[in-house]
Specification:
- The chain is of the alpha+beta class.
- The chain contains eight helices and 27 strands.
- Strands 3-27-26-25 form a four-stranded antiparallel beta sheet. Strands 4-5-6-7 form a four-stranded antiparallel beta sheet, with no helix packed on it. A four-stranded antiparallel beta sheet has the order 10-11-12-13, with no helix packed on it.
- Residues 1-25, 210-215 and 223-231 have low confidence and may be disordered.
Length: 482
């Protein structure tokens, strides 16, 4: 009897284990996206945490308030360990290959003082926003000092200007762009020689209409006490392969927290639909603190409000969301930087002193690959993958749009209309509808003419007969009256 009970108990345990979710693969956050109408829609998770790494685990000692990181063209990951004033370089296997703690500057030992920004060029040169030393430092691939770029000097800059560089990038032409603390005029631009050339991409002034009214009716003394209207300052920056500069601002009130600036400093970011790259649409809006631009026009923004990573394509469509604040693996306390390499995404947590690596799930890989084909115009190849995406998520609007555009190119206008309507792409739905009407009329023109011409002749004959009959009645009436 005891043996039977033991067997039944074991069977029940095995059955329960088979029905229960596997905790090893459980995610610490839910996947979601937004519909065309701004409604939250459940979505499969695109990325899951695969591993974490700390300074202790790689044998270089704990990181202290790390502020930034950068994936170099050679695949090495550079970590800016700000509290310790050093750069730690990791290879693709997460092994520390070297550290840069100090350097010789004109014969003297020099180092960093609470640096906040890091950038590595294709040639391997390292640019560091050495914040508290009020300079940008350039090192070569071996970590040797090349030069420093100090505060910009110009007649347009006030004498009390304070220079605290926070982030730095370099374009292919060697131009250097710096985001500095408390600078509202825009991004500071230097030429390849380090000469100041001006500010670019100034944000528009944000103001409250009520405050503006009171400013107009207040005395000079009262106006001095009111809040001044100043532009929003940038807090981070990245550059894509075409030389366009992506920026972020942490202000939750702005309608454009992400910008894509052309060489003239004009925002040319593409937005397809009602919703731009603003993160969460809830009352407690997102505050972006970093942006990572990868291939095919894809860019990722890091939200400090909830610790989420929002991924957008070149048209500004939200592809997926992952990450969250918390204490579990895959969550953060104070995320400050996001980078990517292939299908891997890295997030640096300042308070925890660690990096979390995220790997793409089947859903995330399909979306990435389909969007990549979609972005280079291979709509037919992308459509095959979008169909796989729809098998995993029947509500994924981008997949419907991708399939609809493929059918539009193939001349299947009626089917294209169906998919584009499901994807809420009004622009391409109108194009498909126009082509469908034209094709329909061309195919049925003969039938319509065969029916229409006799019908017109009948109408003309009836109207003529009615006019003749009316004339005869009038004649009869006249003759009878006579």
């Amino acid at each position: 009897m005891k043996i039977k009970r033991a067997i039944l108990f074991l069977a029940a345990v095995l059955l329960f284990a088979g029905l229960s979710p596997k905790l090893a693969h459980a995610s610490p956050y839910e996947g979601y996206t937004y519909s065309y109408w701004g409604e939250t829609v459940h979505s499969p998770i695109a990325y899951l945490p695969s591993k974490t790494i700390t300074g202790q685990e790689i044998g270089v000692g704990p990181w202290s308030s790390p502020a930034d990181m950068f994936v170099a063209p050679d695949g090495h990951l550079y970590v800016l360990d700000s509290g310790n004033g050093r750069i730690v370089v990791l290879d693709s296997q997460w092994k520390a290959v070297r550290q840069i703690k100090s350097f010789q500057n004109n014969g003297k030992q020099d180092g960093f003082n609470n640096p906040e920004g890091l950038f590595v060029t294709e040639g391997g040169h390292i640019f560091v926003a050495d914040t508290e030393n009020r300079r940008v430092v350039e090192l070569d691939g071996s970590g040797s000092f090349v030069r420093e770029i100090s505060a910009p000097k110009s007649e347009v800059i006030s004498s009390n200007f304070e220079y605290f560089p926070r982030k730095v990038i370099v374009d292919k032409a060697g131009r250097i762009y710096v985001v500095a603390r408390g600078v509202f005029e825009g991004i500071i631009e230097f030429d390849s020689e380090g000469g100041f050339t001006g500010f670019m991409g100034t944000n528009r002034v944000q103001f409250d209409p009520v405050d503006l009214f009171w400013k107009t009716v207040s005395t000079k003394e009262q106006r001095e006490k009111l809040i001044r209207f100043v532009p929003i300052e940038f807090n981070n920056v990245d550059v894509d392969l075409d030389g366009f500069i992506f920026t972020t601002t942490a202000d939750k009130q702005t309608s454009a927290p992400v910008k894509r600036l052309n060489p003239s400093g004009i925002d040319v970011i593409r937005i397809n639909g009602n919703i731009g790259p603003v993160g969460d649409l809830s009352r407690n809006r997102s505050a972006f603190i970093d942006i990572d631009v990868s291939g095919n026009g894809v860019y990722r923004t890091l939200d400090s409000t909830r610790g989420r990573i929002f991924t957008y394509n070149e048209d500004g469509n939200l592809l997926y969301v992952f990450g969250q604040l918390g204490n579990q693996q895959g969550t953060f306390k104070n995320p400050v930087a996001v980078e990517s390499s292939g299908n891997r995404v890295f997030v640096l947590d300042r308070d925890q002193g660690r990096i979390t690596e995220f790997a793409a799930t089947k859903f995330g890989s399909l979306v990435n690959e389909a969007n990549g084909l979609y972005s280079i115009g291979k709509h037919d190849d992308a459509a095959k993958l979008w169909k796989e995406v729809l098998r995993l998520d029947a509500n994924y609007e981008m997949a419907y749009i991708g399939i609809g555009k493929s059918m539009l190119r193939q001349g299947e206008y009626k089917q294209a209309m169906t998919f584009l309507k499901l994807g809420n792409d009004r622009e391409y739905y109108s194009k498909a509808l126009t082509k469908y009407r034209r094709e329909y009329m061309r195919e049925h023109f003969g039938i319509y003419m065969t029916v229409l011409i006799p019908l017109i002749l009948v109408v003309i004959a009836v109207r003529r007969s009615m006019r003749l009959r009316k004339g005869e009645l009038k004649q009869d009436a006249v003759s009878q009256g006579g």
